[in-house]
Every structure is written in C-alpha cells, then in structure tokens.
What we know:
This protein is of the alpha+beta class. The protein is built from 1 helix and 2 strands.
Amino acid sequence: MAFLKDLLHQNPEEENKKPKMKHLVQSPNYYFMDVKCPACYKITIL
C-alpha cells in the first residue's frame, strides 16, 4: 500500500492553508509575549 503524500514531512505552504485545528500539530497561529519595563517592573502583554 503506497501513500500519495508524506504525512511526516508535509509542505509548510499546504499546512498553513488548512484550518488551524486540522494541522498535523495543533497550535494557534498567534502568541502572546510579556514585556517587562526595566525601570518600573511593569509587565505589558503584546
């Protein structure tokens, strides 16, 4: 039995076209980053 496409090494362009829940590794398309001000120690979320 032969597969038509390689499931372990998928094309990143095709992977980005799929909905995020259908990706091989389900992860959000965004992330949050905490930035701390060195002077006042205030944390800002970007």
